Structure formats: C-alpha cells, structure tokens
Amino acid sequence: MSEEEEYIVVTTVSMFRQKYCVPKSQLQLENTSVPVDPKWALDAVTCEDVSEFSQKWLGENIIDMQTYDTDGILDLFDEENDYLAEWSIEQKLEFINKWKPEQR
After folding, report:
1. 44-60: string of b/e by CB count within 10 Å (b at 16+)?
2. CA quadruple 45, 11, 72, 97: dihedral positive or negative?
C-alpha cells in the first residue's frame, strides 16, 4: 500500500519599487484656481491616474510554508484558482505535479 502524497506550499511576497513622474505644469492644469501643490502628485498616484515611470525588483520574501494532503491541496487549488475549479482532479494534479518551470 502506497503512502498518500503530501504537497508543500511556500507563500512568498515579491516586492517592487516603482517611481512615477508628473510634469508640474500639467499637474497645475488639474486645478487652476490655486497654485499647484507638489503633494497633488501623491493623490494622483494613489488614484492610479499616473503611468509608471520605472520599476526595480527588490526581491522575494518567504512568508510561510504549509503541508497539505491530496484533498487539502485540491481544496486550496480551487480556492486560489477559482477560474480553473471546473478542471478534473486529474488535470489539477497534473498541473501541480509540473512544478518546475521547464515542465510547464
């Protein structure tokens, strides 16, 4: 009798540093009734009204690790990939078992 497979899930956070650039003269056009305040650019970025100027990847940090049995990993698969919930169990396990990038 074979032992049931266990699956190790590692959760990470990947961090990027983004910069945004706003011409001060054009920011003034957003409100011409008072002199431009450079802090308006903060609001514009928060509201996602500014295109990204540049970015730099700062790395990936491991948050935690969990071990799941087959039923647990299938539940997690459906929770994390709800758009693939209609896949068969075989399709899900095939996807999970292709865990190396060159396998996908």
Report:
1. eeeeeebeeeeeeeeee
2. positive
Residue 7 in contact with residue 77, Cβ under 8 Å?
no
Q: Residue 100 in 3-state DSSP?
A: coil
Amino acid in the structure at residue 77 = F
Q: What does pTM read for this prediction?
A: 0.71
pLDDT tens digits, residue range 13-70? 999 999 999 999 999 999 999 999 999 999 999 999 999 999 999 999 999 999 999 9
Residue 40 near residue 27 (C-beta atoms within 8 A): yes
- All structural domains of the chain with their residue ranges: 6-103
